[in-house]
Amino acid sequence: QVQLVESGGGLVQPGGSLRLSCAASGFTFGSYAMSWYRQAPGKGREWVANIGSIGSSRNYADSVKDRFTISRDNAKAMLYLQMNSLKPEDTAVYYCHVPRSGSWGQGTQVTVSS
Questions:
Q1: φ, ψ dihedrals at 85, nearest 5°
Q2: Tens of pLDDT, residues 3-53
Q3: Which of 100, 99, 77 is nearest to 24 (CA)?
Q4: What is the 3-state secondary structure (H, E, C) of 15-59?
Q5: CA gyration radius, the chain
């Protein structure tokens, strides 16, 4: 079955960077568009970015545009989110998502605080 395992979260100071990873298995990764979502404490889940199946199409939420970069390695079945210039409002649990199947990972916590 579809399995998505996020990693790379942690505590970082404002202005810092983190790179999230999502290891995918159980499906033909290179045939599916992928997304990142996040959920801050007390808030609903928010779309962050998505990427087409071959990586040529990328879209970002306005709140992260020019700071975050989504990428993928289809040979390794890996999805990434490079996060730069992090702000306290980026604090959330970040989730890997397969829109076409509705599958979610377990999430990885990102905390931006001094």
A1: 50, 50
A2: 999 999 999 999 999 999 999 999 999 999 999 999 999 999 999 999 999
A3: 77
A4: CCCEEEEEEEECCCHHHCCEEEEEECCCCCEEEEEEECCCCCCEE
A5: 13
